[in-house]
């Protein structure tokens, strides 16, 4: 596991590597398939089980007054509320990233074209800047699971007066500064 810093933060931005298995098998129109063959393609990053994600030591780096921004997908939306609670936060809002369709991909009856950024709160946080929407239609990134920089920038703009922000383990980043 990535070592967590011995510091408390007021904003935590997390994109956990939810377990999806392999892509491509029977999904020739899937964005990850890259070919029309029936080849299984592993995810480009190691995943964690929901229980492993729940046990990440997020509470140890969360200030007594802290906001959590947790990325999730349709499949893991119910589990994300459990993760928020396991990490010591209370659910507040759901922000939505709307994406244009890019093949059928994985999913059920409907092609998933949204991802969610769950806002959880611990303690009391002052409202620095109020945002006038909870959804954004932003072009997809070319890399699987890459989130738009606009969301990270949005959170950093909310916490301009605070230097206690961190990006937690994600599919593409290590612990690092937010903003």
Write down how many β-strands occur, each being a DSSP E stretch of 2 or more residues: 9
Number of DSSP helical runs = 3
Report the uncertain regions.
24-35, 169-179
**What's the CATH C level?**
Alpha Beta
Shape: globular
- Fraction of helical residues: 10-25%
The largest beta-sheet arranges its strands as 7-5-6-4-1-8-9
Class computed from helices, strands and strand pairing:
alpha/beta
Task: Supply the key terms.
single chain; 179 residues; alpha/beta; Rossmann fold; seven-stranded mixed β-sheet; two-stranded antiparallel ribbon; 3 helices; 29% strand; globular; disordered C terminus
Provide a quick synopsis of the model.
Helix content is 14%, strand content 29%. By secondary structure, it is an alpha/beta fold.
């Amino acid at each position: 596991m990535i070592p967590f810093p011995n510091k408390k933060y007021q904003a935590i931005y997390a994109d956990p590597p939810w377990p999806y298995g392999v892509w491509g098998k029977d999904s020739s129109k899937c964005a990850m398939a890259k070919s029309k063959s029936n080849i299984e393609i592993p995810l480009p990053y190691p995943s964690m089980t929901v229980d492993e994600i729940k046990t990440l030591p997020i509470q140890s780096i969360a200030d007594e007054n802290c906001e959590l921004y947790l990325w999730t997908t349709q499949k893991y939306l119910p589990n994300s509320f459990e993760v928020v609670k396991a990490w010591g936060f209370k659910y507040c809002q759901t922000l939505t990233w709307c994406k244009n369709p890019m093949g059928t991909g994985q999913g059920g009856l409907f092609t998933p074209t949204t991802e969610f950024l769950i806002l959880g709160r611990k303690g009391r946080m002052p409202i620095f800047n109020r945002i006038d929407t909870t959804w954004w239609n932003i072009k997809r990134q070319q890399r699987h699971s890459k989130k738009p920089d606009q969301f990270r920038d949005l959170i950093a703009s909310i916490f301009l007066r605070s230097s206690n922000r961190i990006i937690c383990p994600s599919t593409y980043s290590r612990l690092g500064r937010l903003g």
